[in-house]
Amino acid sequence: MHTLNRRQLLALGAVLLTPAVRVLAIDNSNTSPLYVSAATTNENTYFLMGFRHDGGRMQPVFKLQLPERGHHIAINAQRGFLVSVARRPGTSLVLVDLATGQLIRELQVPADRHLYGHGVFSNDGSLFYTTENAFDDTTESSGRLVVWAVQGAGSELTLQRLQEFPSGGIGPHELILMPDGNTLAIANGGIRTHPSHDRDILNLDSMRPSLAYVDRHSGKLLEQRFLPEQFHQSSIRHLDVNTDGAVVLGMQFEGDAFTNAPLVATHARGQQLQLLMAPEEIQSQLKQYVGAIRFDTSGRYAAASCPRGNQLTIWDTHTGTLLKVVRARDNCGVQATDKGFVFSSGVGKLAELDLATGEISEFEGAEKLALLWDNHLVVADTGNSA
After folding, report:
1. Which helix (H) or strand (E) holds 378?
2. Using an 8 Å Cβ cutoff, are 290 and 312 in contact?
3. How far apart are CA 329 and CA 336, in angstroms?
4. Residue 12: DSSP 8-state
5. What is the mean pLDDT of the chain?
6. What is the pTM of this model?
7. For residue 149, which of 122, 164, 128 has the smallest C-alpha distance?
8. For residue 80, is it left (φ>0), alpha (ψ between -120 and 50) or beta?
9. Closest by alpha carbon to 68, among 110, 114, 22, 128?
10. What percent of the chain is modeled with pLDDT above 70?
11. Beta bridge partners of 344
């Protein structure tokens, strides 16, 4: 059977299916971290998958069918549930019980909105924030930051839409909560789209991506940083923050195919963006695309996945230099571990990179699931591991 890649699957379009869960028989003594990721099958069905790994072997925990393609998963540890956020131009938020993997409910955004695949909870778990597109708004503030309240418990648990604020630009994608607990950093990708035009870019010549810092209580824009004009087509899409408040950015360049544009940047509040470039011969291999970005546990090193270039890149954010490049076909999801990073791929592979030794350990059993992992990988709990 011919295996479809992620881009080919997109071309087939979404098929709406009734959510169903399969909770798999597992060894409950396994206290390794619980990872969660969205995934797709060759039959163009969409799933949410929870798994642990023990001694290098992947151990599935639950498999929940989704109504449309998922993207990022937000964890609410205080209330014991997660939210799978639909990928652009999806409209669904799927609430799932963390302990059982069972569906709690599915919510829809208003008819004139769509999601961008990302959401984040407040530190106390009482509020949830999403980025959305008010796609009939043709101004420079069509991006929205939407505030939801967490209400109820158990089977009655839900999210109640409260209010919204401008995101600070067009096409807001990932948002993260800063260490102060009050500020949201938002990646405004700068790309205008409309569901009637599929995923076509409607403002390629006038793109103006930005990194915006917004007060989550009032919606006040606290600080905003733009890229240099020659890189105005570098769409800022993904973010992470360390405990010191340093932000790392992953970008996707939408301009000329032969331009060596920066794909990684760092930022500290009150300063300019610092654009990072790999040596020219490597930069050109990254295919102008970062799919996900995450700090390691030390907060100094960052992994930026480049699925189009089949590379996982490791950066020293203190010096701004590229440290390591790992060849990994269609890798995208990445998450920090006590050794380095776990990463997933659109060809069904899962592996861990040991930063100290450079050793890569592939998880046994992942290929038997016949799942094509989506862009993001999250840790739902850390078990009892160090």
Report:
1. strand 372-381
2. no
3. 19
4. H
5. 89
6. 0.90
7. 128
8. left
9. 114
10. 91
11. 350
Helix (H) or strand (E) holding 185: strand 183-188
Encode pLDDT of 78-117 as tens digits. 999 999 999 999 999 999 999 889 999 999 999 999 999 9
Question: Do residues 175 and 145 touch, judged by C-beta distance below 8 A?
Answer: yes
Chain mean position to CA 161: 22
Lookup: tokens for 47:
């799933």
Long-range contacts of 264-273 (CB under 8 A, 24+ apart): 264/290, 264/293, 264/302, 264/304, 264/313, 264/315, 265/236, 266/317, 266/320, 267/211, 267/225, 269/213, 269/223, 269/245, 270/223, 272/225, 273/211, 273/225, 273/227, 273/249
- Tokens representing 81 are 């549930």
> E strands within 67-154?
70-76, 81-86, 92-97, 103-108, 113-121, 127-134, 143-151
How many Å apart are CA 132 and CA 108, to the nearest integer? 12
* SS3 label, residue 360: strand
Asked if 362 contacts 351 with a C-beta cutoff of 8 angstroms, the reply is yes
Selection from 57, 131, 56, 55 nearest residue 93 by Cα: 131
